[in-house]
Write a structure and sequence with these properties.
- With 194 residues, this protein is an all-alpha fold.
- It contains 7 helices and no strands.
- α2 packs antiparallel against α3 and α2 runs antiparallel to α6.
C-alpha cells in the first residue's frame, strides 16, 4: 500500500508538471496535495515497516518527537490544501468569468504558503494543548487500526479519488505515456547481442 501511495502521487505530480494543459490552479493544488501525501505517509510507514521487520516497537524519544512533528505538520497541511482546493472550486463554479483573474498564479502561491504557515502555527498551539492535557486511555488495537486507516489508506486513495477519475488527468497520462513509449520503443524478439 505504501508503494501504491508513493507511485500514485508521484504520477500525479509528474503528469501535472509535464503536461501544459494541466498548468491551472486546480492541478497546482492537486500536485501540492500529492506531494504532502507522499511526505505524510513517509513520516510513519518506513518506521512501521522497520518495526514489523525487526519485531520491535522501540523508538527513541527524539525520533518520536520528530515523527510526531512531521505527522501533525503534513496532516494539517493536507487539511488546509483540501480547503484551498474547495475555495478554488467555489470560485470556478460561482464566478466562472472571473476565475482566471481571481485565481492568478500569485494568489495560488500565496494560498499554498499560507497553508504552510497556518499549520506551523497550529502545530505549536496543539502541542501546547497536548502537554497541558492529561492522556486518556484507549484500546491500543483500535488506535492502531485507526492510525493505519488514516496514515495509509486515505493518502493511497487520494490519487484515485482526485485525479485518476478525472478525464483531463487520464488524457495527460496517455500523452505522457505516449511520449515515453515513442522515446523508448520496445521491440520484442529482435534483441541483438553485442
Amino acid at each position: 500500500m505504501y508503494l501504491i501511495t508513493v507511485f500514485g502521487n508521484l504520477l500525479i505530480i509528474l503528469v501535472t508538471i509535464s503536461d501544459s494543459h494541466l498548468h491551472i490552479p486546480m492541478y497546482f493544488f492537486l500536485s501540492n496535495l500529492s506531494f504532502v501525501d507522499i511526505c505524510f505517509t513517509s513520516t510513519t510507514i518506513p518506521k512501521m515497516l522497520q518495526n514489523i521487520e525487526n519485531q520491535s516497537k522501540a523508538i527513541t524519544y527524539e525520533g518520536c518527537i520528530v515523527q510526531v512533528y512531521f505527522y501533525i505538520l503534513f496532516a494539517g497541511l493536507d487539511d488546509f490544501l483540501l480547503t484551498v482546493m474547495a475555495y478554488d472550486r467555489l470560485v470556478a463554479i460561482c464566478h466562472p468569468l472571473h476565475y482566471t483573474v481571481i485565481m492568478n498564479p500569485w494568489l495560488c502561491g500565496l494560498l499554498v504558503l499560507v497553508s504552510w504557515m497556518m499549520i506551523v502555527f497550529l502545530f505549536y498551539c496543539t502541542s501546547l494543548g497536548v502537554y497541558l492535557s492529561s492522556a486518556a486511555t484507549h484500546s491500543s488495537h483500535s488506535s492502531a487500526t485507526a492510525s493505519v486507516m488514516y496514515t495509509v489508506v486515505t493518502p493511497m486513495l487520494n490519487p484515485f479519488i482526485y485525479s485518476l477519475r478525472n478525464k483531463d488527468i487520464k488524457k495527460a497520462v496517455k500523452r505522457v505515456y505516449g511520449i515515453i513509449a515513442i522515446k523508448r520503443p520496445i521491440v520484442l524478439g529482435q534483441m541483438k547481442c553485442p
